[in-house]
């Protein structure tokens, strides 16, 4: 599966992408819908309208706390020699994550919707396009408050965290009405859900304690929240699903793994979605995956056999 991003002013000679007819999509393409300040509300309204049919929402937060796929879920704060993040208690791991999430800006937010079978919504890139393509979203965000910048998202400037927070609630994408109906997914949830919570609060610092953080997630998203990394570590004995997101996608045969890099938030949310759906179908088809709802890697104790 390959992915294509929407055209940007840099590649269209300054002509807004909405004035151009995109190339005819191939059946295996996934179209990355770039979202900016200009089209933030209508795109999130589209997402809200699709939730009854596509109730699985995977988010991927691309932030400035460090590069690399695995680094996106691990702490950036320097630790004493010989001390590993994995060996720290949950309270300490949360404290390190809070330092990073509070200090670093959220650059992009990838959003992928799918149904219970992993199928993506098909949308036209522009109203007059001849064919629809499977689509995911990538929200371009200002790196900090008060700064001004332009991005390729729909030909307009990047959105602010406050604008994103308002749009998520105003459109009903995040609403008590969706509790129990929408399943939220992230890979390495301590960081990606932490940055998503930062977005939902318009850039406010994370709660002071692990318990308050988990309560805030439940308050905004409800009880159906899954961390792909936590779930991947809880598959039956003899199965090892550890490593970066790109590695897991390739190992499990996720179509997103075939896309050429560099991946951005949109592609990574797609990969995380496909990895989660494959783990769910392969290892939790009989017992169900709901036992792991609300559990975040690093914040919850592993089962006895881990």
From TrEMBL:
One cellular component (GO) term of this entry: CCR4-NOT complex
Annotated region (Disordered), positions in chain: 1-24
Biased composition (Low complexity): 1-17
Any GO molecular function: nucleic acid binding
InterPro entries assigned to the protein according to its UniProt record, in alphabetical order: CNOT7/CNOT8/Pop2, RNaseH-like_sf, RNaseH_sf
Coiled-coil stretches noted in the UniProt entry, renumbered to this chain: none
Protein name according to UniProt: Uncharacterized protein
């Amino acid at each position: 599966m390959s992915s294509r991003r929407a055209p940007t002013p840099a590649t269209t000679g300054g002509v807004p992408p909405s004035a151009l007819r995109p190339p005819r999509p191939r059946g295996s393409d996934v179209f990355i819908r770039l979202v900016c300040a200009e089209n933030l509300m209508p795109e999130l309204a589209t997402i809200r309208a699709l939730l009854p049919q596509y109730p699985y929402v995977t988010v991927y937060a691309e932030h400035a706390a460090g590069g690399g796929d695995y680094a996106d879920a691990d702490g950036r704060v320097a630790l004493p020699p010989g001390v590993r993040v994995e060996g720290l208690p949950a309270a300490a791991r949360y404290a390190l994550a809070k330092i990073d999430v509070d200090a670093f800006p959220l650059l992009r937010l990838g959003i992928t919707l799918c149904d219970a079978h992993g199928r993506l919504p098909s949308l036209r890139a522009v109203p007059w396009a001849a064919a629809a393509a499977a689509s995911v979203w990538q929200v371009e965000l200002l790196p900090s408050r008060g700064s001004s910048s332009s991005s390729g998202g729909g030909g307009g400037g990047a959105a602010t965290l406050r604008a994103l927070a308002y749009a998520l609630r105003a459109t009903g994408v995040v609403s008590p009405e969706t509790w129990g109906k929408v399943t939220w997914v992230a890979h390495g949830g301590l960081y990606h859900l932490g940055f998503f919570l930062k977005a939902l609060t318009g850039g406010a610092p994370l709660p002071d304690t692990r318990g308050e953080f988990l309560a805030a997630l439940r308050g905004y998203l409800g009880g159906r929240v899954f961390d792909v990394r936590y779930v991947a570590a809880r598959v039956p004995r003899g199965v090892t699903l550890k490593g970066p997101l790109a590695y897991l996608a390739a190992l499990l045969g996720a179509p997103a793994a075939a896309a050429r890099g560099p991946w951005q938030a949109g592609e990574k949310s797609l990969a995380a979605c496909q990895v989660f759906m494959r783990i769910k179908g392969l290892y939790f088809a009989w017992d169900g995956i709901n036992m792991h709802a609300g559990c975040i890697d690093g914040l919850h104790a592993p089962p006895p056999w881990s």
